[in-house]
Design a protein that fits this description.
By secondary structure, the chain is α/β, with parallel strands linked by helices. It has helices spanning 2-16, 59-73, 83-87, 132-145, 183-195, 220-225, 236-247, 295-311, 327-331, 333-342, 348-365, 375-378, 400-409, 431-435, 446-450, 469-473, 476-485, 493-509, and strands spanning 29-39, 45-50, 94-99, 116-120, 125-129, 147-148, 154-163, 169-175, 200-204, 252-259, 274-279, 282-290, 316-320, 369-373, 388-391, 413-416, 452-459. One 2-acetamido-2-deoxy-beta-D-glucopyranose is lined by residues 113, 115, 130, 164.
Length: 529
């Protein structure tokens, strides 16, 4: 470890002297030199060897090669080199990708290895990985290593990289309920997630304001709960497209259907599901969280989550469980009776636990794992030992670092989001605070630290729709991406600022309208796509 730290600092010194390429996120081990090799797009090809008998083709790699060829060379594909330059340099005309285990038609999972080794030297140019997912990460790195001379020739320097993620769950949350995001916004986000090596799209699909998910078992939910059932919904075809688009980029889709709170939009399409609130002895006409005392509620949830479990193939579902407002439950005489019968006294957390417990049992029976927001843990709901707890509250009831300590001490796995709410913006380079968070800076044993499987950047949608999503996300989310991928030693802000600014320029070149980090300019601003 001491050796690798020294190596890192030597590289850092070289980078600060202005010699590093703009890699983002920074790899675990890298060695580069000034020896450069030209690449002539018309001569260059990607080749692959997937160790498997009679592999007819690998969609994940074939499509990635197409994407990266376009990203690298774009319309300059046929650019002719200066012949003088060709004579004294070794040309690189292929990158050979070796994948040890097949699985081109599978889905990435929490357990997928994303390691890769990239070698560019006089003898060979190859990318070695355990899985196709690792190959995707390596291809992205390769694409960031290629640079262009002022004359327009492409080059890559002699390089040796050994890379792997620090955390296996590197997520980004989009909220498609507070504002509907068109499919193109979601697909575009998945592209940039792949550029920054995020691997989980947390789809906070529905919430109080709207229900855009088109359910085939309960079509009334979207008909009555979406902003517009003709235009502002995600059809089965849309959902399939998102899942496949994500898969081709090594990204898992973790869908969230948050209950029992945050469910106002479910009400119109599912009569009887929500709790009627009372004003004195009369129903007030308004509704609260899901009604936890009716058998019909659990019948509904069984049917609904059976559908969700088959539509979304990832092993994990996110079941929400945050911010349940008890005032409506308190006002309802039937709920009061139920509380008495169950011996819950006046403790509405017990009623919430009763609901969540039953829901978790339903979902477990479908062979799924689940992620929940931290309140489920705080309220001492009995959950399966393999539950993942997502920590999102900054301070209450305790600081998020203390919460990580408590969650892992109880042997649960944890995800950190509290310091990474990117919908919060402040004047100045606010990515720095996000970047400097050290997710394991809590008191705990090595076993506890190993239970933190990663984290998520969250982009809640109150003040965000497709007009401002891209510049608000990028490059700021990149700060979280690097924190979750790179070594914990990579914390130098000067080093990061320069690379993140370069990464942002590269995003512009790739057609992503990422906002500036500070004063300055990019060589290629606002390229048409
Ligand atoms: C690549 O090599 C060129 C010279 O051939 C040098 O100017 C540049 O700094 C090198 N880049 C890296 C990342 O080493
Ligand atoms: C990936 O790299 C990590 C860190 O070096 C190592 O612990 C792990 O065994 C590697 N996994 C594979 C599949 O190579
Ligand atoms: C609800 O289900 C429970 C357990 O299956 C049963 O004991 C109870 O009678 C049911 N209540 C109603 C109102 O149907
Ligand atoms: C950790 O958990 C144990 C029980 O497993 C408990 O005795 C101890 O108080 C907990 N520590 C903290 C800091 O919560």
């Amino acid at each position: 470890m001491a050796g690798s730290a020294l190596w890192f600092f030597l590289l850092l010194a070289a980078a600060l002297a202005g010699r590093a390429t703009a890699l983002w996120p920074w790899p675990q081990y890298i060695q580069t030199s000034d020896l450069r090799y030209p690449i002539f797009p018309h001569n260059f090809q990607f080749q692959y060897h997937v160790s498997s008998a009679a592999q007819p083709g690998c969609s994940v790699l074939d499509e990635a090669f197409q994407r990266y060829r376009d990203l690298l060379f774009g319309s300059d594909f046929w650019h002719r080199p200066d012949p003088a330059e060709k004579q004294h340099t070794l040309e690189i005309n292929s990158l050979v990708i070796h994948v040890a285990t097949p699985g081109c038609d599978q889905l990435p999972s929490l357990e997928s290895a994303e390691n890769y080794t990239l070698t560019i030297n006089d003898e060979q140019n190859f990318l070695f990985s355990e899985t196709v997912w690792g190959a995707l990460r390596g291809l992205e790195t390769f694409s960031q290593l290629v640079w262009r001379s002022p004359e327009g020739t492409f080059f890559i320097n002699k390089t040796e990289i050994e890379d792997f993620p620090r955390f296996p769950h590197r997520g980004l949350l989009l909220d498609t309920s507070r504002h509907y995001l068109p499919l193109s916004s979601i697909l575009n986000t998945l592209d940039v997630m792949a550029y920054s090596k995020f691997n989980v799209f947390h789809w906070h699909m529905v919430d109080d304001p709207s229900f855009p998910y088109e359910s085939f078992t309960f079509p009334e939910l979207t008909r009555k709960g979406s902003y517009n059932p003709a235009t502002h919904i995600y059809t089965a075809q849309d959902v399939k497209e998102v899942i496949e688009y994500a898969r081709l980029r090594g990204i898992r889709v973790l869908v969230e259907f948050d209950t029992p709170g945050h469910t106002q939009s479910w009400g119109p399409g599912a009569p009887g599901l929500l709790t009627p609130c009372y004003s004195g002895s009369q129903p007030s006409g308004t509704f609260g969280p899901v009604n936890p005392i009716l058998n019909s509620t659990y019948e509904f949830m069984s049917t609904f989550f059976l559908e969700v479990s088959s539509v979304f193939p990832d092993f994990y579902l996110h079941l929400g469980g945050d911010e349940v407002d008890f005032s409506c439950w308190k006002s309802n005489p039937d709920i009061q009776d139920f509380m008495k019968k169950k011996g819950f006294g006046n403790d509405f957390k017990k009623l919430e636990s009763f609901y969540i417990q039953t829901l978790l049992d339903i979902v477990s029976a479908y062979g799924k794992g689940y992620v929940v927001w931290q309140e489920v843990f705080d309220n001492k709901v009995k959950v399966r030992p393999d539950t993942i707890i997502q920590v999102w509250r900054e301070e209450a009831p305790v600081s998020y670092m203390k919460e990580l300590e408590l969650v892992t001490n109880a042997s649960f796995r944890a995800l950190l989001s509290a310091p990474w709410y990117l919908n919060h913006i402040t004047y100045g380079p606010d990515w720095e605070k996000v970047y400097m968070v050290e997710p394991l800076a809590f008191d705990g044993t090595p076993e506890q630290k190993a239970l933190v499987i990663g984290g998520e950047a969250c982009m809640w949608g109150e003040y965000v729709d497709s007009t401002n999503l891209v510049p608000r996300l990028w490059p700021r989310a990149g700060a979280v991406a690097e924190r979750l991928w790179s070594s914990k030693l990579v914390t130098n802000l000067d080093f990061a600022s320069k690379r993140l600014a370069d990464f942002r320029c590269e995003l512009l070149r790739r057609g992503i309208q990422a906002q500036p980090l500070n004063v300055g300019y990019c060589e290629q601003e606002f390229e048409e796509t």
